[in-house]
């Protein structure tokens, strides 16, 4: 992760960047403020507008070399041996992993060949807003321990710009299958009624199978792939969607005072995941085109073209809390405020509900029987 606020002024380029985020009134460092969408000083409340160039977000050819690499500044890079998250910072990175809390973090050589993000979605939810959403979320579940509502301190709450890839592609799919058409025949069968043998009839459904085939063309826009290994993917998917229409050009001002993670899933690995997702969607679309009442032996052959990508950063609040010596993680979408996470269950409440239901059932059976 890159923590712009702590960049040292040891070299000319670092000095220039530090001056860029220096408050003109009191000399303190300016941080990005989600409420004003500007740089703000926490000491004197002065605000500096971020000049954003409005332009069409550019897609890059998947098979061409990236134009910009590295963070364009001197950073210290460490990697967590537990979750695999890579953290880049302008200052010495110390302490436990910001994602999983593991103490097994080792310093590594700076990664100068990483693809630089060109766009990001700025944080819209500030720390206070994230805390409020957490307390609302934690108090919703009836089976959660009542004491959870009194937990006001989060051991880990960090605003992180998380790396993502987006992929565009065109597809052509040929499919073959056997289409099944239902028809009904009348069958006779023998039954016994009152000790007598009788003959009866019934309608039996049959399937007539015929070969079928077809083709379709599709275009997929912004297949979103998370490039972090430090986050729980299931939780990330649950805080979707992100509105990519709000992407703005990457500028250091937006991550001043915040963290930015380095991608752990590279461009080609990301495409491999996106490709599997697209193939699954193509199979579903082709299945919907098979005529008849049912089908079997569906085979889909998909080819890909015009593959492009973007490397973007999206805002996520990464948080955790401790309850009875166990850590629970949750995420907050820094753009929409959507909260998803894990919480303990109060088995006392569960037992009480089961006991009440059992009592009601027993009472009903007593009067019925």
Explain what this protein looks like in three dimensions.
The protein has 369 residues and is of the alpha+beta class. It has 2 domains: 4-175 and 213-351, no CATH class; 179-209, no CATH class. Helices cover 20% and strands 38% of the residues. It has 5 helices and 15 strands. Strands 4, 5, 6, 7, 8, 9, 10, 11, 12, 13, 14 and 15 form a 12-stranded mixed β-sheet that branches. A 3-stranded antiparallel β-sheet has the order 1-2-3, with no helix packed on it. Strand 2 (38-40) and strand 3 (47-48) form a beta hairpin. 27% of the residues are buried.
Topology:
Layout: H1 12-20, E1 31-33, E2 38-40, E3 47-48, E4 60-61, E5 76-80, E6 86-89, E7 105-108, E8 119-120, H2 127-138, E9 156-193, E10 196-226, H3 233-238, E11 248-249, E12 259-262, H4 267-289, E13 294-323, E14 326-333, E15 339-341, H5 347-368
Parallel strand pairs: 8-13, 9-12
Antiparallel strand pairs: 1-2, 2-3, 4-13, 5-6, 5-7, 6-12, 8-11, 9-10, 9-13, 13-14, 14-15
Number of strands: 15
Radius of gyration from the CA trace?
29 Å
- Stretches where pLDDT falls below 50 for ≥5 residues? 1-18
Largest sheet: 12 strands, mixed
The total number of structural domains is 2
How widely separated are the two ends? 68 Å
Tell the overall outline: flat
Question: Helix count, per DSSP?
Answer: 5
| Helix content class | 10-25%
β-sheet strand percentage: 35-45%
> What's the order of the H and E elements?
HEEEEEEEEHEEHEEHEEEH
Q: What is the residue-averaged pLDDT? A: 80
SS-based class: alpha+beta
